[in-house]
């Protein structure tokens, strides 16, 4: 009986014994994979590559920004959009913008993990938008960050005050502001809060139109930072005593934070402000 014919250079060529066996069983010829097998392998490789690519490129979370349009705050809003777009591109999250509340309903908000109220006031909302937003906050369907105009609570432009939103902001009503602007020193009251991580305290905010309200929201919210009115430059009579400027309301299921500052675009050159904004995005979106 003739000995099986093995390929002499099998070791050097990296052909294993199983290949030898196949070679023997096929008359010494190594069986090649069929076209269908090759196509199946190519399909699996392509699917794996696509899956890996999708995992890397699909956004980590989605943000909807309700942005004020027009008026004296437009430069701040424009700077905010540029800054947000750059951060989203760098950190792989998606940002969409709307300039009124017409699109807002339950289904619309369900697409987003974070709602940013970029200087949009708490009035001139459609009833549908109000109801959807209340549910979004009370049921913790997403997080919320509000800036500046979000506490313009009262009767403005023919609209009545939104009582629910006033309660959400600590039961306050807008009373006055500093139209000529003033610098002010802000002190962090809860440095352990995630939104304050890496923020030096105190820090200076320049040329802000500090709002006053009929009372401090402190009894109804968790204050994160306050402005020291004695540091106003130039000095002004528009003061309210205890003056929180950043706070969160733990009485609502959604992670929420109000940041008063938001008049001038130069705020996006202020490291304390941008660090707080960045921290707030990830905290409120639960990332």
TrEMBL record:
This is Cytochrome c551/c552. Residues 62-284 form the ThuA-like domain. It comes from the Bacteria. Pfam families: ThuA. InterPro entries: Class_I_gatase-like, ThuA-like.
């Amino acid at each position: 009986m003739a000995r099986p014919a093995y390929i002499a250079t099998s070791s050097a060529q990296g052909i294993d014994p199983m290949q030898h066996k196949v070679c023997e069983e096929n008359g010494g010829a190594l069986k090649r994979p069929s076209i269908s097998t090759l196509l199946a392998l190519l399909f699996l490789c392509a699917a794996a590559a696509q899956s890996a690519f999708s995992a890397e490129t699909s956004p980590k979370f989605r943000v909807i920004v309700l942005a004020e349009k027009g008026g004296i705050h437009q430069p701040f809003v424009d700077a905010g959009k540029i800054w947000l777009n750059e951060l989203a591109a760098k950190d792989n999250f998606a940002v969409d913008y709307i300039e009124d509340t017409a699109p807002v309903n339950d289904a619309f908000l369900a697409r987003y993990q974070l709602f940013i109220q970029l200087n949009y006031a708490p009035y001139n909302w459609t009833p549908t938008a109000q109801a959807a937003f209340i549910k979004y906050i009370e049921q913790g369907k997403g997080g919320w960050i509000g800036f500046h105009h979000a506490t313009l609570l009262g009767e403005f432009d023919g609209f009545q005050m939104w009582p629910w939103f006033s309660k959400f902001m600590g039961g306050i009503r807008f009373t006055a502001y500093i139209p000529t602007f003033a610098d002010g020193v802000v002190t962090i009251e809860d440095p352990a809060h995630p939104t304050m991580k890496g923020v030096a305290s105190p820090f200076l905010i320049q040329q802000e139109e500090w709002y006053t309200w009929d009372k401090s929201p402190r009894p109804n919210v968790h204050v994160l930072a306050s402005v020291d009115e004695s540091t106003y430059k130039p000095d002004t009579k528009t003061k309210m005593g205890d003056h929180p400027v950043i706070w969160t309301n733990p009485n609502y299921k959604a992670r929420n934070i109000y940041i008063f500052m938001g008049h001038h675009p130069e705020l996006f050159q202020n490291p304390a402000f941008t660090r707080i904004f960045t921290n707030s995005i990830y905290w409120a979106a639960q990332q």
